[in-house]
Specification:
The chain is of the alpha/beta class and 276 residues long. It has helices at 14-23, 46-58, 79-98, 116-128, 155-163, 177-183, 191-201, 236-244, 261-275; strands spanning 3-7, 28-32, 65-67, 103-106, 109-110, 138-142, 150-151, 171-176, 207-212, 214-215, 226-227, 252-255. The chain has an eight-stranded parallel beta barrel with strand order 1-2-3-4-6-8-9-12. Strands 5-7 form a two-stranded antiparallel ribbon. Helix 3 (79-98) links the parallel strand 3 (65-67) and strand 4 (103-106). The protein starts with a strand and ends with a helix. It binds fe (iii) ion (2 copies) and zinc ion. Residues 142, 176, 211, 256 line the site of one fe (iii) ion (FE). The site of one fe (iii) ion (FE) has 4 residues, from loops.
Length: 276
């Protein structure tokens, strides 16, 4: 069965978000681990957490994905920026793990001039101070479009990060269809080739989640602009190939398309229908 959901607004609180997933006829969701453009976060009382768990169980919701804030840059050479990032990832791994959330994804970071090699070393140190090895949660590195000095534009860079991990078994990959397409992996004309390349460089067993987005920007543009499904350069048929691919279809899919809840409900229904 297809596991699909969308990004939910954290303003509603944990239990309410899960209720909205059910109303949307989705069966999973992505949430922000804290304010995506700041540093604040909400705390949830026992009753709220219990209600969240109950809704998840009753409706057989799939794995929940938390997204770390965009303000966090673990590749940075600037002391304050780096220390903030180290604190956020350490706290948010622990906080999301305590909620019973399965995955936390983050953008590896931007090296802003020090070079990808140095940036990757910073990310490795930052992750190693955050992961205790005792978590149930799995940390996912997101594939990036490569805008500016972004790290994670190639499977090799993600492999280099994993190779530095003290607890590599706690670290997997989230593939964003918009980002990989913009990075120059041709999922439209050669999805099988891209998956073979992923398997060769990383290993397909590390792929745990898919961000399902169309792309406003062309192939290889290194620009990150999400489009609604079917309205971008990737197109509906290529995205249906992703959803139905034998190597991918058991994974959870999360839409990050520019729509509100009603729009996402329709988008999910449309995808289910086309896939059937
Ligand atoms: Fe992301
Ligand atoms: Fe994404
Ligand atoms: Zn993006």
């Amino acid at each position: 069965m297809l596991t699909i959901g969308t990004h939910m607004s954290i303003a509603d609180g944990l239990a309410k978000m899960a209720e909205n997933v059910v109303k949307m006829e989705a069966n999973t969701m992505q949430i922000f681990s804290r304010n995506p453009r700041g540093s604040g976060y909400r705390t949830y009382n026992e009753a709220e957490i219990a209600r969240f768990r109950q809704i998840r169980e009753e409706n057989h919701l799939g794995p929940v994905l938390a997204h770390a804030p965009y303000t966090m840059n673990l590749a940075s050479a600037k002391k304050e920026v780096y220390e903030f990032a180290c604190m956020v990832i350490r706290e948010d791994i622990a906080r999301m793990d305590a909620l019973g959330i399965e995955y936390i994804v983050f953008h590896p970071g931007s090296h802003t001039g020090i070079g990808a090699g140095e940036g990757i070393q910073n990310i490795i140190r930052g992750l190693n101070q955050a992961i205790t090895g005792r978590e149930n949660i799995t940390v996912l590195l997101e594939t990036m479009s490569g805008k500016g000095t972004e790290i994670g534009v190639s499977f090799e860079q993600l492999r280099a990060i994993r190779e530095g991990m003290l607890y590599p078994e706690k670290v997997g990959i989230c593939l964003d269809t918009c980002h990989v397409f913009a990075a120059g992996y041709d999922i439209v004309k050669d999805l099988d080739g891209v998956l073979a390349e992923f398997d060769r460089v990383l290993d397909l067993s590390l792929l745990r989640a898919i961000h399902l987005n169309d792309s406003m920007m062309p192939f290889g543009s290194h620009k990150d602009r999400h489009a609604t499904i079917g309205d971008g350069e990737i197109g509906l048929s290529a995205l249906l190939q992703v959803l139905g691919h034998p190597l991918l279809r058991e994974l959870p899919f999360y839409l990050e398309t520019p729509l509100d809840d009603q729009g996402h409900k329709k988008e999910i229904a449309m995808l289910r229908k086309k896939l059937a």
